[in-house]
Amino acid sequence: MILSQQDAGPFARFARTERRQNRSARPVESLAFFLDHKQRSLAVRALTLGTTDGRLIVGAGDHQEHVAEWGAIADRGKNTPDRVATWRLHMDGGEVLLTSWGGAFDPDLGDGVRRILGA
Questions:
Q1: Hey, which residues does 101 pair with through a beta bridge?
Q2: Which of 14, 17, 40, 95 pairs with 55 at a CA distance of 20 to 30 A?
Q3: What's the whole-number mean pLDDT along residues 111-119?
Q4: What is the pLDDT of residues 32-76, one digit of tens each?
Q5: At what angle do helices 27-42 and 109-117 cross, to 10 degrees?
Q6: Which CATH superfamily is domain 24-117 in?
Q7: Cα–Cα distance, 95 to 75 (Å, whole number)
């Protein structure tokens, strides 16, 4: 339970406010909200989570399907049409690939994906 400053009375300084604006009980939708937040805070064109063969699972930003494909290409050591960075995550069912179109990642990105997907 989150108390308002007024309801918290003398404990107002300990009252927490909810920092997340968008929430969902569905993992893929939660992951989309998370990636959207990270994409904006990192100021990259797109962030995607895809399969290692380039299929998009979920993403945020521009041209998500292409970015997931570029991630798979870059992960195999090949050149891509634009600057991307990849991060291979080991999940319970195999491996997935985070791709950043713009080349920036946040250290808690992988942990956030694992937490949301329950891996």
A1: 46, 84
A2: 40
A3: 85
A4: 999 999 999 999 999 999 999 999 999 999 999 999 999 999 999
A5: 170
A6: Dynein light chain 2a, cytoplasmic (3.30.450.30)
A7: 12
Q: How far apart are CA 11 and CA 48, in angstroms?
A: 41
Q: How far apart are CA 65 and CA 106, in angstroms?
A: 21
Q: Which of 16-25, 41-50, 96-105 shows the lowest mean pLDDT across its residues?
A: 16-25
Q: How far is C-alpha 14 from the geometric centre of its chain's CA atoms?
A: 29
The Cα 74–Cα 86 span in angstroms is 7
pTM for the full model?
0.77
Q: Could you tell me which of 110, 95, 2 has the C-alpha nearest to residue 52?
A: 95
Compute the distance between CA of residue 58 and CA of residue 24 in angstroms, rounded to an integer: 14
